[in-house]
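User: ok so my PI wants both of these folded by tonight, can you help

Assistant: No problem, let's get them done. Here's the first:
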Amino acid sequence: MAEKTLIIVESPAKVRTISKFLGSNYQVMASVGHVMDLPEKELGVDVEHDFTPQYVTIRGKAKILNGIKKAAGEAEKVYLAPDPDREGEAICWHIAQEIKKKYKQKPVYRLLFNEITKSAILEAIAHPEAINQHRADAQAARRILDRLVGYKISPLLWKKVQRGLSAGRVQSVTVRMVCEREAQIEAFTAQEYWSITAQLEAADPPIFKAQLHKLDGQKIKIADQAQAQELTDELKQQNFQVKEVKKRQKKRNPYPPFITSHLQQEAARKLGYSAKKTMLIAQKLYEGVETEDGPVGLITYMRTDAVRVAKEAQAEAREYIHEYLGAEYLPDKPPTYKSRKSAQEAHEAIRPTSVFRTPKSLKDRLNKEQWQLYQLVWQRFVASQINPAILDTTTIEIQAGRGYFKASGSVIRFLGFLKVYVEAKEEDKKEDATEEQTLPVLKSGQSLKLLDMMPKQHFTQPPPRYTEASLVRALEENGIGRPSTYAAILSTIVARKYVVNQQKRFHPTQLGRLVNELLVGHFPDILNVEFTAQMEDQLDKIEEGKADWVESLHRFYSPFSQNLQQAETDMRDVKREARKTELKCPQCGQGLVIKWGRNGEFLACVGYPECRYTNNFTQNEQGEIQIAVEEKTDELCPKCQEPLVVKNGRYGKFLACGNYPDCRFSKPISTGVSCPESDCTGYLAAKRSKKGKTFYGCSNYPKCSFALWDKPLPESCPQCGEKFLLERYQKGNNYLYCYQKECGYRKEVSAE
């Protein structure tokens, strides 16, 4: 009987796909991710002896690891084939160490492939490699760094603020970025300015718009309505004449195929997917699905920062473009794209494993989300291999007395890559309202008829809050984290309740701002964006064999341990802190102090526990503390008949008895919409999930589990009469739609 070869991958999905490619002499097993890690409830790093890690078998993985070792003993060769990145290399290293403990002479090899197709797997088996020790060391260094920061700072936060808090080397810097953006927004003072737009008509249609941009040859800034009206009145009296017509042809080059961060950004903008959701779907497409040709991975490895494309893939793309789009869309030679300096060029960009597996051909094989993401990857890759689009652009300068107006427009002469793919607009980019218009044929000296002139008020805008897409982009641009970490970073800061995601924008919580303030004050390096980026560069150098991981950790730990010792004594003890105020307790007349609790800061009586008075507070413009006036309602408590009041809690506003703490009755605030379940008497109320996302659930929960993600509004559907509508914010648009899917009513509304 022929000896078996053992192949170890990470996931059971890969096992199913790869097993069907190979014969009966191959046994494929899954490690189901990491099998070894640092211990859960202790540091697990010997700081005194060169940061030696203490690895233990992960809880629940002993059976899997024993099964792998048993199968390794019965196999002639062992091939380790987890993902081609640092995490995958670490899994290989741990499994190899465990196998070699028991079978010292057993040959263990590393398989590397960027796609799960039969040809790629057989090619990897034909050319096995050794485990990359430098890459494994880089992952170990990252894991130890994160453990040192987390296990040294988190207990300090427990002691000084509240139990359960955590700090992270990368997550804390991300929270800082969100907090600093919020501070910029709060400090922003809007400046008024005005624009003047003329609506003009030439001898031939269409009517077009031109905007005033110069006065007496100088760029103009219109400060207020009076100036705008004065100029409008003056310019209305002038003759409008074409001064200059500039025409030019420009190319719009295609975008490179996706890297991880760009896929996450585009999926957020076009599909509304979170970074985490995008990566989960991409993982399934990479690991393999059933097609007409059997099981196959549909896309290449999805954690990459390189835009390199294999020559074979480019050749196939060129064949497809020539056959289905035409020779005019095919470049003379395959385009090349330049990766950023830190990119791992061993990886490829994210692309379909075959362009001939079109989205249309896979429509019935994939679920809706898989199909949408696959289509995005497929279109972006094919577009990257097509000729540029060609546009005819026209800029017209128009004189009216001492005023100069400008109109611009463009016409697509050749679609090029735009025939296949158009990138979503970035939320934060402002565009000229006159730029996309169609212009009539005009010539210098031609007179124009003024139809209308419209002064319009504007205000300068603060920097926008981060969306998932823009925060991923900011992390990438600042060198924070790497492709495999972006989704986890964003999920973690929301799960820890340091930020909340409201209407697709990140807002720091009071807890997040407090923790950020404490950490920035006492760990300036750890919370420094540039320092964090330098650490990422250092990890890259370790992977490249240009730096020693132990030396790197020593350089980091020495100043960090000094900051830690200083923080133990100097950091504010928020948990025990009681800041005095000038206010008196309305129940007993003693003083009120500001304390910190699970829901943030609140007022409490110094006479506690004899007097248990607490309340929220507000600050006026002079910074004076005032007792928050509870908003009384007309509704009475069903237990004691006292009026119910609106209170703020851990998950937002709710109704509570005004006789608290003697009566502890409370209930959620109604949206004004009754629960649509036929046998339920409850109403829908805003609630917050454990991950910090707002949803709308029935007040009779857990008896009734009806819930919605979109906000219900007590407005009847004008089309079918349904008693409420839903409001959705998606891809930068607000719209109302009917709860009844078969109705199909939808109405766009302006975003606030």
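One down. Here's the second:
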Amino acid sequence: MSMEMVAALGKDNGFRIIVLIAGVTTMLVGQSAERMAHLRAGAGGYDWVMLTNPRDDAHGQLDSLVQEWRHDGAGAQGSRVLLITVMKNTRHLGPLTTLLQGVNLTGIPALIFDDEADQASLNTRPNDPRPSAVYSAIEALRTSLPHHTLLQYTATPQAPLLISRIDSLSADFAELISPGLGYTGGSTFFEQRLDLVSTIPPNEIFDHTNLPTDPPQSLIDALQVFFVAVAAKYVETGSPNGHRSMLIHPHQRQAVHNAFLQWTEQLKADWVATISSQGDPDRPGLLAEFANAHAELARSVTDLPPFDAIAAVLRIAIGRTIPTLVNSNNGQEIPWANGYAHILVGGEKLGRGYTVKGLTVTYMPRGPGGWTADTIQQRARFFGYHAKPTDNYLDYCRVRLHQDVRDAYVAYIEHEKDMRTQIRHNRGSSLKDLKRAFFLDRQLRPTRHNIMLQLYDRPRLSSGWLEQRVPQAAPENGALNSQLVAGLMQAIQLRPDQQFGRHFFADVSLRDLLENFLIPFSCPDERDEIPLCAIRLTLADVADRDPAATCRVIFMDHGGDLRERSIDDGGSITLQQGRSSSADPNRYPGDRHVRVNADDRVTLQIHTVRVVRRQDNPPGPPIIAEVIAARVPALAIYLPPPLQRDMIVQRNN
């Protein structure tokens, strides 16, 4: 809908060529072309000239349109618009580029949509002087349109965000698209409606090389729940409209698809035969199984028709359901027009972009594979418009998953919310200024590594503490940081710690501290900059959730002697002092114990140190060979366990 709207606005504002790069499968291209045809239907007349995967034989149409635009003026009201839908592969992008190059398009405004922009478009050889094929083909297409804007669309922006910022496909800005009424996504299934999601028993998830002869019980249960849901619609309407469907996504191997399709077709045939025969001894037992499926649905569907009514139409509901194999070895489209109920069995072709109409039951024993977040998310075809005011069937939905995949979706929710929040906050600024730092569970990687010029780091806090290691790397030996410390000290009222009187503290607004102190505080060395970036991200999230949150700021050894720290061979220091070696039971326990003992409070220690380099002086102790920084601030920050979250940080690329 967003692409349709932008295309219509483009037409109104003088764009005359619109190219939709529409996925890597014929299913996606067909789906996109069908939807973009709404523009023609809405406008009436012949304002929209639409081509799909055009070749040289479209030269005449293009040349005629260009002459029209030249004569009328490119922005003239009522001028026709050329909308081209093209598959995202070199076999189709190449001929389109040749077609466009055959006409002088200088001064003709063009708009390019790259749908599923994180798939196939990006350069998979960023360190190679020869870019990958589709990336090169898109670059050539862009060159053939000398006056164009490229808009990338995706539900999973990890890859476009993590490519090099100097890459030509690194975006200048980003806008969030919010779903319409009735959309049910990750929060619905994994936070609000946990009753709709269950896991498949581990003993029913099979290795593709050792498939059993008989179907797993969890598949049988899922099919029976689906057929009861379909039968309910027959009871309610007699002849249902629209669609209800089931998705079976077992594995990437086609042999596994074939096995699940055969099980489905055999179960379907057996059940129809058994239910149709009143004298079949297996009929009562089978109906009892469907009664259990009915009871399962009744947990969430309050107005589910009684089972007697369901049983009366089960034979029709099962018999008229159409199973379809959907993979690269089966080129046929899904025959939506041939029936109300469908069961789709497949793999990658059902893993991205394609809308499964009326998806009600999902059965996905497939594991997480490489634990790649965007790939796992794109397989969630069960996200969608299940709760529209005109067609609310969310209560009928059931999702059965591999346990690891379920865990991955739960972890992904926080990651997605964080990305969207950061993009929203960045609105109006250059996307290239957005810090590439996001919450992400340690088991997951954000996207495939082969599109990144520079990988990311995963900061790990030791016992919850971040200790600055290279404070002397700050510009001018920390002069700016010293000014920040002085300004903070003037803005707060310090008082001595009751337990450790040499340390003074104050409780301050976390948001104010973050914005006025921690963000401008300079830590240029990556050993400090990367973990501090993670800390800032965490604290910003805490402050967004709780604007009243505070942080305890502790000035270590306030008013006392300057602490001295020696650098090691790598140029770093050990900032925090350990516990006292004294035998006194009240001995100093060490700096790490100087913090707030609360699960929701952050502690910031501010140290002022002299950084020196020592050298051996046998047989005596080492001596100071050089003063690296006479007086420099250094930070230690404690995050309590509830705030210690996994994240990725990509340095400036």
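The chain has a mean pLDDT of 93. The longest helix spans residues 254-276. Good luck tonight!
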